[in-house]
Amino acid sequence: MLQDYTIKKQPTKTSKLIASIEFILVLLAIQGVLLLFNQEVPTSEVAQFRILANSNTAEDQRIKQEVQKKIAPLLDQAISQSTTQQQLHDRLQHLEPTIEQLAGEYANGSAVTFEHKAALIPPKRIGFAIQQQDVYDAYILKIGKGKGDNWWCALFPKVCYPEEATVTETEEEPVKFFVWEWIKSWFS
């Protein structure tokens, strides 16, 4: 009777090639599924709303969240009752004193302004769709100095502060992609 023993196979270049091709096909399949669910956001007609906190302190960010909770119903009502951009703009102009008063109650004496202007809005995800970065018609509620960063400002300072980013810019290392470097290492 023969004893049971394991057969060990050494990975070959062919098996590495097949594994990398399978990996690439899986990535392409995932990309295809994401494209199926991709919805186009009608960006030319979308009004953007932003609330800028006084600073990045925990207290200022908490105030920003409280203000957002209080004015969200007013904005939702104005949006639902408007059928055109002009109607929305008129309703928001009418609500401006109310919005500033509500925000002022939480602002601890800081100045509050509500502006309507063209503003650079970074990309963001809305459902399965991604809104492109662009200059949009925006309504901006600024509490105090309005220096509170949003998450994209920490990750992409050139988007939020292009002047400051060019001053402090140093020589950067070339960008390397882990997956591509890993695949290249198989064939070296």
Order of strands across the main sheet: 1-5-2
Q: Which percent bin holds the helix content?
A: 40-55%
Question: Major beta sheet, specifics?
Answer: 3 strands, mixed
What class, by secondary structure content?
alpha+beta
On the 0 to 100 scale, the average pLDDT is 76
The helix/strand order is HEHHEEEEHHHH
Total strands: 5
Radius of gyration (Å): 26 Å
Cα distance spanning the termini: 45 Å
Give the oligomeric state of the chains in this entry, treating copies of one chain as homo and distinct chains as hetero: single chain
Q: What is the number of helices?
A: 7
Q: Write down the overall geometry.
A: elongated
What does this entry look like structurally?
This protein has 188 residues and is of the alpha+beta class. The protein has a domain at 43-167. The protein is 51% helix and 16% strand. The chain has seven helices and five strands; from the N terminus they run H-E-H-H-E-E-E-E-H-H-H-H. The strands form two sheets. Strands 1-5-2 form a three-stranded mixed beta sheet. It has a two-stranded antiparallel ribbon with strand order 3-4. Strand 3 (124-126) and strand 4 (129-131) form a beta hairpin. Helix 2 (58-81) packs antiparallel against helix 3 (85-106). The chain is elongated. This is Stage II sporulation protein R. InterPro entries: Spore_II_R (IPR014202). Keywords: Membrane, Transmembrane, Transmembrane helix. Pfam families: Spore_II_R (PF09551). The chain crosses the membrane at residues 17-37.
